[in-house]
Structures are given as C-alpha cells and as structure tokens.
Amino acid sequence: MKKLLILSVFFSSLYTPYSIAGRKEKKKLITPPSHEQSVYRSLEPNSILQHLAFYELYPDTEEGKAALKTAWFLLCGEDEPLSGQLHLPTLDVYSLIGLVNKQSGELPVNMSEEQLAILEKAAKRLHNRTLEGIKSWSKEEVLKLSEDEIDLGRALLIYQFDKEADKEKKIRQYEASLDLMALQISAKLPKNPTADEMIEQINEFIFRQMRFRFPPHSIYAKDVDLYTFLPSVIDSRLGVCLGVSILYLCIAQRLGLELEIITPPGHIYLRLNDGHKILNIETTARGIHMPTETYLGINTQYLQKRTMKEVVGLAFFNQASVMSGRQDFATAVQLYETAIEFVPNDPFFKLLLGIHYLFLGKKKEGTSLLKPLNSITFEGSIGKETIPEDYLSGRCSVEAIKMIFMPVNETRESILKKQNELKTMLEKYPKFRAGLMQLAVTYLQLGRSQEAYNILLKYHQLDPSNPIVEYYLSIICLQRLDYVSAWIYFRSTEHILFQSHHQPKALKSLKSSLQRVSPCPL
C-alpha cells in the first residue's frame, strides 16, 4: 500500500483527469479514455522514472508494458533490447525510483546484487566507465591515479566506506544512484548534445526536479561535514557549496562534460570554459551564472583552478575544519594529512596542518611547516599571511593562535565570549596581527564601529600593507563623516591593489560613494 501511495504521488500532479461532466452529446457519445490511458498520455516522453512508476502501478495493462519498454530504451539505448524475461521483482521499480527520489527520513535503498547488475549494465555506456579510476577499490590505487583518470565519486566513496565490512556493496549502491541520475539526464538530451545543453539539463534535474538545496545556516554551521559527504548529500538533498559541486561533478563525469573547478577563498563553484565564453555554475544558487567579478574581493586578485584529484582533498579539508572547530585537533590533523596527499603543494593546507601540529604539542613538525611560509602571499591574494611570521618572531604563542580558531555562532553571547578571550590574549601579545583583525571583526559584528576603528588603527600602525585593514578603515571613516581620513585610507588601499594591477568592484564602489559626498582632496 505504501508503495502504491508513493508511486501515485510521484506523478499525480502531472495530469488533469478527463471529465465529460455537464457535456451534452446530441449525436454520438465519445468513449472517454480509461484512467490508466489518461495517466500514460501525461507522462514525460523522456522520463525514465515516470515510466517506471507507471509500470509499477499498471504492470498488466498494454500501457504498462509500453511504459516499461520506453523506460528500458531510455536506460540502455538501442543496443540493449528489452528481454521478455524482465519482470518484477527482477527489475525492482520501487527501488530504482527510491535511489534518486528517496523521501526525507527514509532509509537508503538497499538493492540486491541482481538489481545492481541490471543497472550497472545499463550504465556501462556512461563516460566515467572509460576512466582508470572506476577500476580502483582502495586508497592506494586512488592516490596512484593521474589527475585526469580520477573518478570523483568512486574516490570519495572509497574513503567514506573504507572501514565498512561491506564497503564494495555500499559504494555500488551510491554509484547506482549517480548512474541513474546521469541516465535520466542523458535520456532528455539530444544526440551529440552541446555543453550548454548538458548544463541546462543537469540544472533542471538537480535543482528543479530533485530540489537539491543549500541547508539553512542553523543546520549546516553545526554539521557542515554532513553536507559535504557525497552519501549525505544524496540522501538528504542538502549540501554546502562543496557537497553539491561534488554531486554535480560526479554527474558531469558520467556525461562526459568537462568543467573547471574554481575555489575563491572559502568557496567553490564550477564553470564551463570552451575558449570562447565562460559560463559560471553557482551550485548554492540553483546553478545560475554569476559574473566572475562577483567572486573577486579586496584581497582576492584571481581565482584558483583545481583538479579533480584536488577536489578529493578539499572534502577532507572541510571535514578537518569541522573537527578543528570542535577542538578535536587530533582528528583534524589526520584529516589534514589525508587532504595534503591529494593537494601536496598548497601552502594554505600546509599552514593549517602546521598550526594543528602545534596545537597537539608537536612543535618540531609544526615549525618545520611554518618556516617556509614566513611572510608568504597565498596564490591569488594580495596581502601576505601573517601568522607564520608572528609566531616565529615571538609576537604570539600557540595558545594565542588557538583564539583565532575559536568558533562563533550567530548568537551575541558567542561573539562576546570570543571577543573577551581575544582582548585578554592581546594584552600579552599586542602585536599579533591576526588577533587584532579578529577582534575588530567581533566589534563590527556587534555594530560597534568606533571600537573596531581603534583596533584596526593599531593594526595599521603595525603594518600598513594589509589592503583589507585599509579598506575597512576607509569605510568606517566614511560612515563617521570623516571624509579626509576616508580618502587617505582609500588611497592607501588603492596604492596596495594597483601594485598588483587589481581593481575590484568593491574598490570602485567605495570610490563612487566617496565622490558623491566629498570631492577628492588634492
């Protein structure tokens, strides 16, 4: 009964029942179509799931048999004719639909070996089957793969279920979900589709049909790792930018769609770059295009492009950040070490691993990683990273650095707690620049711009080369109607950025605001 109810709801809104109520036929009565005929005519011609659901409800009707034939053709193409032996329960339609249409709170679908074999046979024509990565079943095999042979879904699922007794079965279950999604999208594409057509259909399926969404802040801030892992994203249909981007990439690999992976600070999005145009895919906003300039900031000169192999490392990086926020530094170190195996040359990853070594009391290991990063400027940034220099020169301690990593939530109490900790720490280490910046931010979060200005001014006196500090000082002076000082700090910001030939939108907006209220001083 439950199956019938769910399957009926699956496409009950797609048609309007035929009715001849109130009509007067004087000459000839027209026989209305049966209920199943009306439903059959309302099915999307290229929807695998709708045809399978219809067959589940009406298996013994002519329409039901036709729906099964259509679904099988859409799944497998012309090369796999429908066998007369293919009937339920061999082809478990309810399980197939549940793979991608599981309702919130339902347990993951557990398909039998026979059912998995049927779906894997249908999916053998997907592009990811040509990658060496689809043959990997261990961490060691994944690490040996070249950048262009990684199967992203397989690599992440291997690490996700590495300690499970039935690892291979669980991996195949979730890959079946990805395969069916890709096959459904492929069924709606024309022959030899363009990249634009593939992106349009992926967006339609993920964001409008399946309704994958960015989770509310109150949920993801607590358990961001859950909304990064591929199985959790598939099961819940909720994901942060990295989680949904990973899902998107897994489907794109199956369709043979090559996308670039771009990581602004603290974010990730995808883009199509065919040499003639750039189409950005913002996975936190239903796949819409956002101008590249949107992702550039005062301290972000250009955006990093990642490889598929590096994306595996980014997943562990996200999880490590969560463990760090929970003060579980030992687990965080393990995860950062795993991440670095996939992103061995990223100085930011090395910085965080080095810092967390210090948190665990591993001073030698931490210091050896921080020394090469002294006064480094990260790729794509303008201002230099100050923590290694301040630590190595004695301007801060390990405990002081811990204050920087102290998490806050949306509550005023949380912000005040961190603020008080930072104030106490800065009494001992008044020249710790990252500490000053964090303290200023807490005051800005509380709407206390005067206190923020005083803290930022101390930073400026220590180091006038940080463009974000100079930018914030200019904005605060503008808000306080101190236009002369606002122009001074604006010029300082402009000078720092122009040295790197960087003119971000935020700087242009600030200049426009200043010009409206005060002429540029000589």
Give a written overview of the molecule:
The protein has about 525 residues and is mostly helical. Helix content is about 55%, strand content about 5%. The chain is built from 25 helices and 4 strands. The protein has helices at about 1-10, 35-40, 50-55, 60-75, 95-100, 115-120, 140-145, 150-160, 165-185, 195-210, 215-220, 230-235, 240-255, 310-325, 330-340, 345-360, 365-370, 385-390, 400-405, 410-430, 435-445, 450-460, 465-480, 485-500, 505-515, and strands at about 260-265, 270-275, 280, 305. A 4-stranded antiparallel β-sheet has the order 3-2-1-4. Helix 14 packs antiparallel against helix 15 (about 330-340) and helix 22 runs antiparallel to helix 23 (about 465-480). Mean pLDDT is about 85; it is low at about 10-25.
